[in-house]
Amino acid sequence: MFTVFTANLLSGHKGACDMKYVKKILLPRNPILRGWRNVIVFILLVVLVFNGVRFYLDSFEIYDFSHLTPVNDFGAEWEFTPIEGEPVVPGGFVRGAENDYLALYVHPGNAIIAVYDKRNSFIWYSSPPGRRQDNIASGFEVNVMQSVVGMSFFDRLDRNLFRWSYADSVAHQQAEIFSMENGITIRYLIGNKELGIHALPRYIETERFQYRILDQVYATSDRNWLARNFNETPARPGFMRMSSTVRTGVHAQRIIAIFEEIGYTLEELELDNMMAGVESEQTLDLFTVYVQFILDGDSLILNAPLHRIDISNEINRLNTLEFMRLFGAGSDECEGFILIPSGSGAIIEFNNQKSHEERFSSPMYGFDLINNFQRPQVLQPVRLPVFGINHGNAAMVAHIESGAALASVTADVAGRLNSFNYAWFSFNLRDSQRVPIGLPGTHRVNTMTMVQNYAFEGDITIRYHFISNGGDEVNIAQMAAAYRNFLVDNGTLTPHTAVDDRAFYLDIIGSVDVREFFVGVPYRTEQIMTTFADAHHMLDILNSGDVNNVQMQWHGWFNRGVNHHVANRVNRTRGLGSLGEMQGLNTRLQNNGGALNPVVNFTITSYISRRFNTNFEVARDVAGWRGSFTPTSREVLNTRWSHYYPMDRFYLVHPGVIPTHVARFINAYQPMGIGNLTLGDMGDVITESVYRRNSVDREHSRLIAHEQMGLLQENFPHLVVFGGNDYALRYAAHLVDVPTTADWFYIIDAEVPFFQMVMHGYLEFAGAAVNLQAIPDVQAAFLTSMATGAGPRFTFTAEPTRLFRFSPHERMTSTYYMNWMQTAIDYYNAFNAVHRYLINQPIVYFNVLAGTVRNHVTVTEFANGTRIYVNGTEIPFDAAGITIPAFDFIVTY
Q1: What's the start-to-end Cα distance of the chain, in Å?
Q2: Which residue stretches of the chain have pLDDT < 70?
């Protein structure tokens, strides 16, 4: 067919007789040449088809998430009108808004704010008094302390440059204040409006240079200096060119002053540039940023509408924003502490003399695996986007309502950069990456900066809750209650109302993907570790030990085991048992107050996943690299990264295709009739894909996850969620793998269960499985459960775990149920005997009585008056006339 088509084409072409060489190539007479021609044509067709299919797949539009972008409307703005009355805040502040609890003040000259709490007469300053007299702070740091907004941006050379609202806006009288309902808006024009050297022409006509410039200069020395530094150039006959050594050197300010003295204008600059045929170099780096402050009951809302930011130079790309770095800061003469969301929570005491240690800093929801896959993550993810500052009889808790996935929280003590103790949020709006360039094996490898094209354009919203205790000291539980009350008011948390047995969390390993050999040839297969019949046997033993309310998370039930393939289809693992047996197990668990909760992952998928287009459905970083990772151990920092265990390596799924996978999963899973589900990663891992088109930033990824979890909860009302990120709380019936300890930053002074204080009485939770810890310490885990209310959790397999040897699942070799069953029963019964009566009781008081950050004596008080004293040290401790034995607990009522 190809031969006939080519012959017809050539014979009908004018001048075909002159194309004999083309005919020889396309229509060779030699059979061997015809064979090679056909092979080449076939290969070209295959390549064209392959690239056509690839182009077609890559041309798909991802999920339209534009409706998720948060944009707040706090009403109209008008010319600032102060509220009349005697000012309570000294130093030139005027009242901008007021309600029954708070009064908002603003300083017209410095464009900073202060909040006056009427309940305890405490004043919260965005920039602390005494900052200009700080003996430690440098001049630059003083400017930072006086700034409400800090920002960075990438210029045309991809340099990351910083600006601050005081030095780059207020100091140039470029800030303006507006009034609004219940608050104010401050508009900062950040950047120096003066053009500097760019206000002068690079070229100017020779005649015009004489009469307009030289003849107008009064001083002879200046006139001679100008004549020496403007020279004729062969490139533009008839024009004088400014010397580059003057334009870029130390004499630039002198020539600027001379041109200003003779009244040279911007209109003249445009004329001279036009006559010389060059483009204007007016590259002002100006950013117009709006910050809204609104009073809402006993809290202050800070809202930054990013869609209103105006950038004068389109080449510049906004990178980071931070707000009120020193809001509520305590001086080196104050007493108090900073609450940080490290793990379960931690406290940094004011002036703890640890300024030589690394300050605390952590991104929300953990490091993004797309940018962090080459090194193990040793920090626990931050689950709640909060921090707090406590001054004794006044306290404040800040949390992010919008933009949390872009944020990091930082805290520091006096003595490092200044004399204040403070914490703040910063927001990374655009990703960047240093990419190595150069030939492999060379000694010198250069790098280039890759910058994300698109940036988040929704609203950044922070809420500051102010807490008063009638003049008495505010404790950590009251700070937790302020945040919890907000979650209750907006419907995120619902209180327990009845006393009942606590849940026992049992993770079951069903099937795993392992590597076997047949006559020396490796192949992958599934190893069944626990069947549904085995689970019934385990329940018989647990029920006989009075453990009934079992929440069973089943790992490895579909799509090739624990590390399952992408969840856009459901292929049950047949070796576990029939669907009827699975449904029967769920019915038995539900009849006793529990549930069967099959585990599914959507954010990550196996590296060898089927039905998964790695060109389109994998998240990519700025440089275009596909996002993949392998699990690591936080305790011993071991990681397995080899082709020998490809089933233990994972891809990060593009957030924009997750809704498609979720919809297909719902359609496939719903007919099974289970009605329960465990989300293994959607409430635990946030990622992004920021490579060119189809970009999804972390905040929109969080919003997509939140929306899809709502859709899953509508179809499967009983959701168990791993991790417990704040956006998952609304839809979770139970939380597992929540943090129960803080990260061991040397700057912290005490570990506190802030996460548990927020959740207790409203949502049941559990930490890591006791028998899967790097060094299982049952007594330490039990004492943590008693102090915080974290439920017992174990992971079991029916088959001996020696089957995990030489597999990527070696980390689960302590899961054989017969080795742990009696321990689990004793653990649960001792815990439930106390905590079944506290399931609906919030924690109202917590204190560390003695010990170190890790090994300490604590007391936890619940709303009904029950107190639990826990001694995690090696010696007995006396508290309020009660002796707590070493490594034990005492309960008082």
Answers
A1: 94
A2: 1-26, 54-61, 193-196, 248-250, 280-284, 372-378, 438-445, 631-648, 806
Any domain includes 811: no
* Residue at a domain's end among 276, 307, 333: 276
Residues 6+ apart with CB under 8 A from 420: 128, 131, 134, 145, 326, 329, 330, 331, 332, 414
Print burial letters for 372-388: b (CB count within 10 Å at least 16), e (below 16): ebeebeeebbbbbbbbb
Structural domain contains residue 228: yes
Strand bridging mode 867-871 / 888-892? antiparallel
Q: How far apart are CA 427 and CA 407, in angstroms?
A: 4
User: 3-class DSSP state for residue 707?
Assistant: helix
Q: Domain count of the chain? A: 3
Q: What is the pLDDT of residue 285?
A: 81
C-alpha torsion angle, residues 223, 228, 234, 239 (rounded to 10): -10
Strands 718-722 and 676-679, how do they pair?
A: parallel
Tell me the two tokens of residue 422.
């403070």
Backbone dihedral angles phi then psi of residue 104, each to the nearest 5 degrees = -100, 125
Sign of CA dihedral 539, 544, 548, 550: negative
pLDDT value of residue 635: 45
Contact yes or no for 137/420 (Cβ under 8 A): no
pLDDT, residue 312, reads: 85
Helix 821-835 and helix 532-544, axial crossing angle in degrees, nearest 10: 50
What's the CA gap between 48 and 665, in Å, rounded? 33
Instruction: State the alpha helices, DSSP H only, in 592-657.
Output: none
Tell me the CA distances in angstroms from 303 to 72, 455, 459, 622, one per residue in order: 8, 17, 7, 28
* Spacing of C-alpha 441 from chain mean position: 36
Identify which of 765, 681, 666, 758 has the alpha carbon closest to the alpha carbon of residue 713. Answer: 666
Residues 6+ apart with CB under 8 A from 480: 754, 757, 758, 843
Distance CA 215, CA 224 (A): 11
In a domain, 732, yes or no: no
User: Residue 237: phi, psi to the nearest 5?
Assistant: -60, 140
Name the residue among 101, 74, 66, 271 with its Cα closest to residue 182. Answer: 74
- Cβ atoms of residues 692 and 654 within 8 Å: no
**Total Cβ atoms within 10 A of residue 470:** 8
- pLDDT value for 639: 47
At 548, which amino acid appears?
N
Domain coverage including residue 231: 196-276
Instruction: Check residue 642 and give its pLDDT.
Output: 44
Two structure tokens written together for 745: 């930053």
pLDDT of residue 386: 98
Q: Are 160 and 153 in contact (CB under 8 A)?
A: yes
Residue 472 has which token pair?
Answer: 């008495």
Residue 876: which CATH number?
A: 2.60.40
The answer to whether residue 571 sits within a structural domain is: no
For residue range 646-656, list pLDDT tens digits in order: 556 889 999 99
Distance CA 392, CA 330 (A): 11
pLDDT value, residue 330: 96
Q: Report helix angle 579-591 to 532-544, nearest 10.
A: 20
